[in-house]
Design brief:
With about 375 residues, the protein is α+β, with helices and mostly antiparallel strands. It has three domains: about 90 residues, no CATH class; about 120 residues, no CATH class; about 100 residues. Helices cover about 45% and strands about 20% of the residues. It has ten helices and ten strands. Strands 4, 5, 6, 7, 8, 9 and 10 form a seven-stranded mixed beta sheet that branches. A hairpin with a 6-residue loop joins strand 6 and strand 7. Helix 5 packs antiparallel against helix 6. The radius of gyration is 41 Å and the shape is elongated. It starts with a strand and ends with a helix.
């Protein structure tokens, strides 16, 4: 099916749903649709945009840049462009208009008035001794850091700006009660850390005649990474500084990654809660059906017993009548002992006769038992 849309319509669609959901409606791939937007100056959402929307963040949509109208023709994974007559006004080398960065964060050159957690971490690192890999560690109740002496001051300045940025936005930083550093975003705890890798600087083969082993000496590599240590699927978890980017330049992307991770973790939690709820509902329903089946079986057993009692009653009644007729045939008057026996036998007959008293009734098991009864029973034994 061939679809025609203009530039304004495509702009509205791109900012209304992700490429992965929009592209199939136009019979093209998400990559081709993204290329079209870039080529014709249609701003596209940045990475993490839809996750932030899911968390309730209000993000302003950039206005569509001025551009003469044209029509797109898309068909079977191929894109054909039908441009209006005023194509001469389009400049091929016009720069792409990109949305501004959502997160602006500045790292101070000196660690003045540090965050309380950063101050405590600084004091701990100052007194720390390098391990065999040339690294110092912060320990409990501090930021989770594994860093060399040469780089710890820069890392603390970066983390100080990061912590203050999150707390200014209303989020909480937690390092108490357990080992690790956590940022709490909408009830989701994201564990973060900073780590510097070590490199092997010397290798020695030790041999004492009976066995041999390789001894290695390490030194800091200078490659520092911002980490997310929690688990939530395949979300990005490492931001490493190097020749292309410094730690300060990585902070906006790292913040985006933390929000993306919080979104993924929340989605996982909601999915698990939904699966657990469905599992519990299925368990309760199975229990309910078993109880209803058991209740119906008990009623059937009671019916069988009543039928057997009725057959026994008929036989007993026939026997009592036969005894009474026999006594009358042998005597003008029935003997007193026989009368007493007949009276006692008839009383017993009334007791065992299932038709004496009220008539039998039937009620469905589902009307006698409810799902709430099973839930009450389950909760009673659970707690």
């Amino acid at each position: 099916m061939i679809k025609f849309i203009n530039r304004e319509q495509l702009y509205k669609q791109v900012w209304s749903k992700p490429f992965t959901k929009l592209a199939p409606k136009h019979n093209i791939s998400a990559t081709d649709l993204r290329k079209l937007c870039i080529k014709f100056l249609i701003q596209i959402p940045k990475m993490g945009h839809w996750q932030k929307i899911a968390f309730g963040h209000i993000i302003e949509t950039p206005p569509l840049a001025n551009y003469n109208s044209f029509t797109l023709l898309t068909k079977k994974q191929k894109t054909v462009l039908k441009v209006a007559n005023n194509i001469s006004s389009i400049k091929a080398k016009k720069p792409i208009i990109r949305a501004p960065k959502q997160h602006r964060i500045t790292v101070k050159q000196t660690l003045s008035s540090p965050h309380s957690i950063i101050a405590k971490t600084r004091d701990r690192l100052k007194s720390g001794k390098p391990d065999e890999y040339g690294m110092i560690h912060s320990g409990d109740d501090c930021v989770d850091i594994r860093i060399s002496i040469a780089n710890y001051k820069e890392v603390l300045r970066v983390l100080d700006s990061l912590f203050k940025w999150f707390e200014k936005k209303g989020y909480e930083i937690d390092v108490s009660g357990r080992y690790g550093t956590y940022i709490k975003i909408d009830e989701e705890e994201i564990q973060i850390a900073v780590e510097e890798k070590s490199t092997v600087t010397k290798t020695t083969l030790v041999n004492n005649g009976y066995w041999s082993r390789t001894e290695r000496e390490y030194s800091p590599s200078g490659k520092v990474s911002l980490l997310i240590k929690s688990y939530a699927g395949s979300t990005r978890k490492t931001w490493s500084a190097g020749k292309l980017h410094t730690l300060e330049e990585l902070l906006p992307s790292y913040i985006d990654g933390i929000f993306d991770f919080a979104t993924a973790k929340k989605e996982n939690r909601i999915r698990q809660e939904k699966e657990e709820k469905e599992r519990l509902e299925a368990h309760i329903l199975k229990k309910y059906n078993l109880h209803c089946t058991e209740l119906e079986r008990n009623m059937i057993e009671q019916l069988d017993k009543q039928a057997k009692d009725w057959n026994f009653t008929m036989q007993l009644q026939s026997y009592i009548s036969a005894v009474e007729d026999n006594a009358k045939s042998q005597n003008e008057t029935i003997p007193i002992d026989t009368l007493k026996w007949l009276k006692w036998a008839k009383q017993h007959l009334n007791k065992v006769n299932p038709l004496k008293g009220s008539l039998p009734t039937y009620t469905k098991a589902e009307e006698l038992l409810s799902i709430e009864d099973i839930i009450h029973i389950e909760n009673k034994y659970r707690f």
